[in-house]
């Protein structure tokens, strides 16, 4: 094989760029890298439709209700039959610091619930010591005391060396609720609601569960999702709350447990707090405390502005699985002036709960 003649050694060409240009390029690259570093989460969320697959879709059960329609007819409309006596309902929640929402929940559901099973911990999911807010405010819940089964979860303080996984501690909480539920006198065939304290099933949902034979043994509850107050309706995306007919294998969980979801089954009011201090507490106690990426996120004036504008506390993009949905949901949540179809205890006590109603976004410190 004939050898090729060696290539002539090329003389390095003069770089055809001037020094100012290189400097500019350097600055540009640096700025872009810093920008990318600080916004990596946003960029990754923006491309979620590319890297993440959406959860399995639910089968939605249409939900029928109107005032003064008999239970017999309502059960039939769902394909079920009316019972001769109602089932007992157990409402099981893990409580953090949502005192106002819990007060609304207990009053709204009181006539339908047999026992309110509530667990609270002396630490947060992220391992920070916290007051037992429910126990310290028991007088607010005195009216329901005969129905309350309360448990304390002995939390462990994070000593700072190992970054404890908040979801680990959260799962231990769920095991503890399970024990508490079993100690509350629940029996086979009773109804259990498993939800966070701010996920409130509507009274008509509980009545269907109490009165109809044929309801699925496990179903999710599709809740209207609100942010900061009922002035900011987000969508119907809230699905984690479930209703179960209790059996030996029933376990307290707050994740996907069934493909069936009952449409329009109640309200989920996230970050519906009266004071800015409660927002700060929840932002640091929350399972997603890693979202507090900058100390400035906890600034009171910033939080107040975000609440009134319906923006995101963590400066994040919505979790959506198609670009269409993502772009639709980007930006502020539009304000609603409707205070119709809300918990009746809230409307009866509108003066006490102005901050949850249209026009009430300004919070106390
Ligand atoms: C409610 O229903 C009953 C019987 O079906 C009827 O007599 C009554 O007038 C109704 N009340 C209202 C307010 O519609
Ligand atoms: C939480 O309660 C448990 C049991 O009462 C106790 O051992 C623990 O020290 C408490 N933790 C804090 C942070 O108060």
TrEMBL record:
It comes from Dioscorea zingiberensis. One of its GO terms (cellular component) is membrane. One of its GO terms (biological process) is N-acetylglucosamine metabolic process. It comes from the Eukaryota. InterPro entries: Glyco_trans_17 (IPR006813). The lineage of its organism: Eukaryota, Viridiplantae, Streptophyta, Embryophyta, Tracheophyta. Keywords: Membrane, Transmembrane, Transmembrane helix. This is Beta-1,4-mannosyl-glycoprotein 4-beta-N-acetylglucosaminyltransferase. One of its GO terms (molecular function) is beta-1,4-mannosylglycoprotein 4-beta-N-acetylglucosaminyltransferase activity. The chain crosses the membrane at residues 21-38.
């Amino acid at each position: 094989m004939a050898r090729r003649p060696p290539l002539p050694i090329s003389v390095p060409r003069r770089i055809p760029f001037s020094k100012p240009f290189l400097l500019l390029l350097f600055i540009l690259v640096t700025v872009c890298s810093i920008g990318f570093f600080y916004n990596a989460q946003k960029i990754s969320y923006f491309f979620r439709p590319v890297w993440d697959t959406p959860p399995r879709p639910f089968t939605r059960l249409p939900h029928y209700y109107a005032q003064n329609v008999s239970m017999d007819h309502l059960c039939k409309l769902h394909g079920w039959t009316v019972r001769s006596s109602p089932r007992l309902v157990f409402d099981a929640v893990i409580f953090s610091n949502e005192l106002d929402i819990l007060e609304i929940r207990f009053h709204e559901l009181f006539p339908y619930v047999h026992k309110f099973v509530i667990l609270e911990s002396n630490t947060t999911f992220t391992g920070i010591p916290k007051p037992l807010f429910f126990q310290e405010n028991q007088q607010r819940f005195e009216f329901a005391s005969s129905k309350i089964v309360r448990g304390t979860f002995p939390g462990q303080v994070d000593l700072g060396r190992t970054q404890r996984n908040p979801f680990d501690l959260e799962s231990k909480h769920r095991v503890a609720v399970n024990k508490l539920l079993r100690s509350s006198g629940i029996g086979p065939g009773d109804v259990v609601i498993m939800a966070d304290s701010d996920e409130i099933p509507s009274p008509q949902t509980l009545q269907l569960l109490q009165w109809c034979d044929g309801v699925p043994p496990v179903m999710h509850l599709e809740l209207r999702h609100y942010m900061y107050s009922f002035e900011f309706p987000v969508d119907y995306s809230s699905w984690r709350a479930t209703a179960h007919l209790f059996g030996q294998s029933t376990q307290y969980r707050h994740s996907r447990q069934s493909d069936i979801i009952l449409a329009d089954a109640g309200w989920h009011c996230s970050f519906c707090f009266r004071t800015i201090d409660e927002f700060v507490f929840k932002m640091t106690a929350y399972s997603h405390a890693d979202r507090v990426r900058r100390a400035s996120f906890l600034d009171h004036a910033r939080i107040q502005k975000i609440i009134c504008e319906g923006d995101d506390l963590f400066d994040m993009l919505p979790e959506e699985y198609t670009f269409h949905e993502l772009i639709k949901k980007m930006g502020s949540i539009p304000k609603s002036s409707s205070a119709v179809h809300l918990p009746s205890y809230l409307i009866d006590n509108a003066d006490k709960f102005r901050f949850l109603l249209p026009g009430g976004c300004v919070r106390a410190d």
